[in-house]
């Protein structure tokens, strides 16, 4: 009976020691896997710069650790690209808002300019219209001096209108050349 108890105690002690050794071995073997689980949670939370140590073995877990490092480096690169693109798009958006504001201001200036120019043309046009009407309605009874005077008024007022139109054309030409120059400069900047 004592021998049976002794064998039972030794067997239980052996099983307990075997269990403890297996547990320590499994914990030691699973340590890199638990570290990968923690790292993957951190990466999933957006911490792409989480440092994963190099694999200490070349088994499946070591290979998994190496692949995880490659994935992490790829994610860091993609994240950096996205941040750069976001900054670039933000900058371009600001440039577009500024250009849109400038375009609206330019449109207001054009409208004001055209209104001013057409207002300036009203008086000469009215004088031309009166002189032409006088010549047409009274061509039989008008004296040559009066006809010459009306023709000179028409010529003078036409010169004023032509001058105003020339100013309008010049202003519009400058307006269209300015965006073309800006576009050329941007293309040159993009090629550099």
In short:
The chain is mainly α. Helices cover 88% and strands 0% of the residues. Helix 1 (2-44) runs parallel beside helix 2 (60-137) and helix 2 (60-137) runs antiparallel to helix 3.
- Supply Rg: 45 Å
Strand content: under 5%
Please state the overall shape, judged from the principal axes of the Cα atoms. Answer: rod-shaped
Number of helices: 3
**H/E element sequence:** HHH
Quaternary structure? single chain
Could you tell me the number of beta strands? Answer: 0
Uncertain segments = none
DSSP helix fraction: over 70%
Main beta-sheet annotation: none
- Decide which structural class fits the backbone: mainly alpha
Distance between the termini: 96 Å
Average pLDDT over all residues: 83
Blueprint of the fold:
Blueprint: H1 2-44, H2 60-137, H3 144-191
List key phrases describing it.
192 residues; 88% helix; mainly alpha
Describe this structure in words.
This protein is mainly α and 192 residues long. The chain is 88% helix and 0% strand. The protein is rod-shaped. The mean pLDDT is 83.
